[in-house]
Structure prediction request, 514 residues.
Amino acid sequence: MSVKQGGVSMSQESLKTVVTRIAPSPTGDPHVGTAYMSLFDYVFAKQQGGKFILRIEDTDQKRYNPESEQRVIDALKWLGLAPDESPEIGGPNAPYRQTERLELYQKYANQLLESGHAYRAFETQEELEQIREDMQKSGLGQGYDGRAKRLSKEESDKRAASGEAFVIRLATPTEGETLIKDALRGEVRIPNSEVPDAVLMKSDGIPTYHLAVVVDDHVMGVTHVVRGEEWLPTAPVHVLLYQTFGWQEPVWIHMPLLKNADGKKLSKRRDDSSLDSYKEQGIVAEALLNYLATMGWSMPDGREFFSLKDMIKQFKFERISLGGSVFDMKRLRHYNAHYLREVLDLETVAERAKPFFEAAGYSWKDEDYLLDVIDVLLPRIETLAELTEQSAYFFSDSFNYTEEAKRKLEAGQKHLEALERELSRLDFFDFDDVDDALREYVKSESVKMGEVMMPLRAALTGSTQAPGVSDLAVILGKSRTLERIGRAISYLEAGLPDDKPQKPKKDDEAGATP
RNA sequence: GGCCCCUUCGACUAGCGGUUAGGUCACCACCCUUUCAAGGUGGCGGCACGAGUUCGAAUCUCGUAGGGGUCACCA
Prediction:
């Protein structure tokens, strides 16, 4: 389903510069949902000639993880979604870490306190639990009953002055409803009875998300808040804050959620949703971005492969579908394979692949060798990691033969011996020469191609599943090709002392056992 | 459970009153072939249900069902 008719206008009343922001909290692995939101933030901001800000929401000290911030920054860099302002590069709205902006929130919290739109609450953790329990029992909603609102100003001031711990809560209306003008869903109305007196300022003097986002978004001039649908239920708190401060609301855009195969919100715990993990698996940034873009959005002309640039040209929030898409690794791999094979040039793929080869402990004599290896493997792999998994025999001579390969070697021993002679006679060892030689041999022996090629393939790679034999031989080069044939022959001679193998083999294809 | 959002093939989606409901992934088959792939061709498979509105509904309205989100001094 697409956006409702008569939805909210996307444009602010004036010609304000569009400002979007991604505000991750540094609590762990950079999440794919962050990349998802960043993509739309970035694309929309760039399209509108606006700015995209990265702000770190580190207001939860308990869950704070110091490495996490840098990993988010790095992940955005990897993706190519460079913020115009961030804690790393700074900007006119610095600082970009909320714990460095504490006085600001304090100021606004006090303002709310003075105007009576907020109040101090002194309940302890245990008391709160009790309240919640009671409310649940009586069926009168949950959360907090607002009892501290009834404290007199004098008492509140006195208890605060005496050093008693307190939080500051927003005094929300109990009657009526709050309207969220969501650009994708139209008008969403939530009864105020459902809107809790949210904590704005925690007892440690650090604001909650609710106060911090609103203040920062306003102060930083954020015009469009693009965030996950999970925020819709608490959006009234934010709308109410804008209203009591008398600030103009941003355009609210609650995006559909990314789901796992069970249809549940993608979670760090259950699901593999870490950007670093995708990177390590050899997913390429362009492919991930393209894939993410198709989750809930589509090109007007139906193209499924497109660049960030093209997306910026064509993007409209109107084409967002609200269903919430299942993150499908298979499909991501398909996109990745396409980028590896069709979009990125070989040199670029090689650059991206190098860290993987290095991590695998492989070394190569020159760039061309690496390029040839990648080129011939490309149709067979979908990720950079698979490139190394399938190329061991290109970087080491001491590979083992699989059981299937052993059988092929045994069946083709005489061909190997002949081929060793034939190939050693070649002056040039380029594709045509090798290919011609092999084909001529097959013809002269009047056997099936496979009878000759499979044993050779097994000798060259230790496996029966590999690229074309002529390609393999040419890439490996004459001397290594001959060495490997020789190695296979000595293996056969050493490994088969008896005339006949013990167990009668049932081998369908290469059944030509002597 | 309350509140809110959502609902087209298994998955991602096109469709915005008149289409044989289109494409992609996955899956299956065939072709190509020297194995594995890649590539090519074809196939399987869908408008959650029920009422309306209308000459005509996947498209508009309502209801039902189902799914999801959220109910913290976490974001």
